[in-house]
Amino acid sequence: MPEFSLTAPVLHDYSSVTDQLTAWHVPKSWRFWLRKHQGVTVNGEYRYGNLPVHAGETIQLNLSAADPTDYVHQVHPLNIIYEDKQVLVVNKPAGIKPHPNQPGEIDTLMNWVAAYLAPNPAYITHRLDMLTSGLTLIAKDPLTQSLINQQLATKTMAREYVALVSSDIPDTGVIGAPIGHDPDDKRKRMVRADGDHAVTHYQVIARTRSTARVWLTLETGRTHQLRVHLASIGFPILGDPLYGDVHAAPRLMLHGAKLSWIKPLSNNVQTVECPAEF
């Protein structure tokens, strides 16, 4: 069973270790695990959860967890944009699946990441469509994965994209149409009244005579949300084989260009950007 150690400074006095962990948004399940296994040390010594911690002290969280998905290791170059002790951010190429769907499957991003991080495990967080390029964040331990997934759920992790559409799209807009399954094609989603709440903001950042480059910000994260929303207002992303004209561009012109998240066990915001190749 893999073991992990995360260390962080205490910046303010807290009446208890538990209060500090709560301030760091450590999930209740992990707080229980750390208490049960005496996994919290302060300045190198175990400290009970109800005892205070003080600014200037150092907390270390020692944890273990069952092995995550057993990805087949496949050595392949990665375009690493950012890396620290807890996360890895890579630029996923267009046309590459984010992860395997079947045991033993290869030629996906997580096969490459697993080989790069070996012998340590890799923990997937958010996913990009196979046809979309851009920033993908992978956690290096299960607590960091939980914290990032929590940020995705509470919208404190921001994901921003750039896309190409036809040139006559309005300068800015908000698309708030609900999204659900397309009953006629299991691969697709569609705008439908009984769908899930979904909100996309867009702004044109450049134009040519034939195309507009739009900056897209997600409030929600529905499957194919950007593709469905832009197609629903008459401006499908160029090269989209499901919601537009696949022949309008050599690929789906959608790229995850910017990620912002709160670094685990801190209040510091980390922002990473990666320009599109189109």
Automatic annotation (TrEMBL):
The active site is at 129. Residues 86-232 form the Pseudouridine synthase RsuA/RluA-like domain. It is an enzyme of class 5 (isomerase). Its EC number is 5.4.99.-. InterPro entries: PsdUridine_synth_cat_dom_sf, PsdUridine_synth_RluC/D, PsdUridine_synth_RsuA/RluA, RluA_PseudoU_synthase. Pfam families: PseudoU_synth_2. CDD domains: PseudoU_synth_RluA_like. It catalyses: a uridine in RNA = a pseudouridine in RNA. GO terms for molecular function: catalytic activity, acting on RNA; pseudouridine synthase activity; RNA binding. It comes from the Bacteria. One of its GO terms (biological process) is enzyme-directed rRNA pseudouridine synthesis. Keywords: Isomerase. Responsible for synthesis of pseudouridine from uracil. Belongs to the pseudouridine synthase RluA family. This is Pseudouridine synthase. The lineage of its organism: Bacteria, Bacillati, Bacillota, Bacilli, Lactobacillales.
